[in-house]
Every structure is written in C-alpha cells, then in structure tokens.
Design a protein that fits this description.
InterPro entries: AAA+_ATPase, ABC_transporter-like_ATP-bd, ABC_transporter-like_CS, ABC_transporter_ATP-binding, P-loop_NTPase. Keywords: Antibiotic resistance, ATP-binding, Nucleotide-binding, Transport. It is found in: Cell membrane. Its main location: membrane. This protein has about 325 residues and is α/β, with parallel strands linked by helices. The chain folds into two domains: about 220 residues, Rossmann fold (3-Layer(aba) Sandwich); about 55 residues, no CATH class. Helix content is about 30%, strand content about 30%. It has a six-stranded mixed beta sheet, with helices on both faces. α3 packs parallel to α5, α4 packs across α5 and α8 crosses α10. The longest helix is centred in the middle third of the chain and has 16 residues. It starts with 18 loop residues before the first strand and ends in a 17-residue tail after the last helix.
C-alpha cells in the first residue's frame, strides 16, 4: 500500500526515513521578482541509501540541501531528517555535511582544525581516525591555507565524520578536484557507505552519479523530473547510441542520425531508429566494431532537463507493492 505525503503514517524516530520532504517550496527575491528555487518537491530517502541529486545550475539542488541541513526553512511543506526537524538532527550530531566552500581557518593546520571542531561534539570520533578515514592523514600538519582545493574538501569530510553521523549530505563535494583526488575522495566515501551511512550528494559530474549512486533524482526548475534507480534514469530518455570505428572520410553522414561527442576514438550517433542507423553503417565498408547500447547518464540527463515538458517519474514508496 502506498501513501501520499499528507496521509502517510508518522514513523517513530528509529523507523523514520533519513530524509523526508513533502510539498516543499522555497522562493527568493531577485531583481524585484520572487523566484521559486524549489517548487513542490516530494522526496523520501530511506536509511542506508546512496542518492545523487542531478540538475543544471539553478535547478534547486543546493536550496533543497540547505533545507535538509536546516540552513533555511521551506515557505511551504515540511522537511524532516531522521524523524526530527533538520536543526535538531544537526545539533544531535546525526548529520554531517561536506559543502563547497567556507568554514575553514587558514592559519590552523588540518589536524588543529579537526581537533578544535571535535571539542564541539559530545562524543566525537578520535581525531586521527577521522583524518585517516577521510584520506587527510597524509597532510594533517599542513596549514589550511597551503592545502589544495581537494585537500580542503577531504578536511571538510573529516569534520563531517567527527560525530559519526547517520546521514552525510554532500553539495558538489569534488568541485575543483583533479581526477586522482576525485577517485580518492569517492574511495573514502564508498567505505562510509559500506558502514551503513545514508549518503545524499549533489554533483555536476554525471559519472559520479553513475558509478556511486544506487538511486538518482533529477531536478529541473525546482521540480523532480526523474527519481529512480540510476540505471533506470539512464534509460528514461529512451535513447540508444550506435558507436563504431570509422575508416572512411570525415564527417560521417547517416540519414536520421545525430552526432554525439566521440569517446575512446569511436564515433557515436543516436536517433529515433538506431536499428536503421546500424543497417546503414553495416552496408558500408568503413564501419568497424559496431555496437548499440543504451545512452549513458549524461545523454539521459540532457534529455530529461531539455526545454520541453517531461512528466515526472516518481519512485514508489518504500514498502509499496
């Protein structure tokens, strides 16, 4: 049986979902007008889930996370975390956050920063353990001002781990990191997810959602346009891609096909009839190693957030048949 947000029975704090957003709306004044950043969002994240929030700039991702963290309140609707008001969950140390900027003192070392913040928690994780689990032990003596952007993010990760939170909220956590730093960050985050923590993260790196998130929620104009298992979101646009190696003259022209960015030295085409595209290519002597596959998350994301109406794809309530 499923319930609407208005009729769903209230769970006890021990049974409540990690995040529950019902009919949330939030607007801001801009240029003499009021812009609605979040426009009627319903979202339920169960304990232990790993969920990615995707959307273009201005989609409402950061505003939604700000409400989950208690930085701001919705104009309408409700936001609950772990069965309580967000600020109550934060004060109890049940939520940890890794944000894009701010919150660090340049004159302190990494270890001094973690040690100072640890004093604010009732029963914090040992400082050295927090540094180790966040991948920050190797530069613990370095001044914050001398740390790279990626190192500062790992420091923020260590701070978020101090209260041993049940829920980790990450807003563009790897922005500014190089490929190696991103890989190391997500390796550490994988370990925390395996400990059973709930992880909700917003990202512009679509490969991060595809590789790390079990579930993906896509926002556009403050509304949820897709909410499903990440593999299902990838297929929601109904797009397939024909990829192949081309030995003939450039450009490759195939009737009814639209080009996509090449990858790995392979030409990539899509269109309403990928079988017809494949038949055309097989009739030429220049196409080699031809493959047809579902589009990646990037193509699905572009399709779902294009400037045309899309019916929202809702995720069934947990426990619903």
């Amino acid at each position: 049986m499923s319930y609407s947000p208005a009729t769903r029975p209230t769970a006890s704090p021990a049974e409540a979902p990690a995040v529950e957003v019902a009919g949330a709306r939030k607007g801001f004044g801009r240029g003499g007008q009021r812009v609605r950043a979040v426009d009627g969002v319903d979202l339920r994240v169960g304990r232990g889930e790993v969920v990615a929030l995707l959307g273009p700039n201005g989609a409402g991702k950061t505003t939604l996370l700000d409400m989950v963290l208690g930085f701001t309140d919705p104009d309408e609707g409700t936001v609950r975390t772990l069965g309580a008001a967000p600020r109550q969950s934060v004060r109890a140390g049940r939520i940890g956050a890794v944000l894009q900027t701010g919150g660090l003192l340049d004159d302190l070392s990494v270890r001094e920063t973690v040690a100072m913040v640890a004093t604010l928690h009732r029963d914090p994780l040992p400082v050295d353990e927090a540094l180790e689990r966040a991948g920050a032990a190797g530069f613990a003596r370095r001044k914050v001002s001398r740390c790279s952007g990626g190192q500062q993010q790992r420091l923020r990760f260590a701070l978020a781990l101090l209260p041993e939170p049940d829920l980790l909220v990450l807003d563009e956590p790897t922005a500014g990191m190089d490929v190696r730093a991103r890989r190391e960050f997500w390796a550490a985050m994988h370990a925390e997810a395996e400990r059973g923590r709930t992880v909700v993260f917003a990202t512009h790196y679509l490969d991060e959602a595809e590789e790390f998130a079990v579930r993906t929620v896509v926002l556009k104009d403050g509304r949820v346009v897709a909410d499903a298992a990440t593999a299902e979101v990838r297929a929601l646009a109904g797009t397939r891609v024909v990829s192949f190696r081309w030995t003939g003259p450039r450009p490759v022209v195939v009737p009814g096909a639209s080009p996509l960015d090449p990858a790995g030295g392979r030409v990539r085409l899509t269109g309403p009839d990928t079988d017809a595209i494949a038949r055309h290519l097989l009739a030429t002597p220049h196409a080699r190693e031809l493959e047809i596959a579902h589009a990646g998350l990037e193509e699905a994301f572009l399709g779902l957030t294009a400037d045309r109406p899309h019916p929202p794809t809702s995720r069934p309530e947990q426990g619903a048949p």
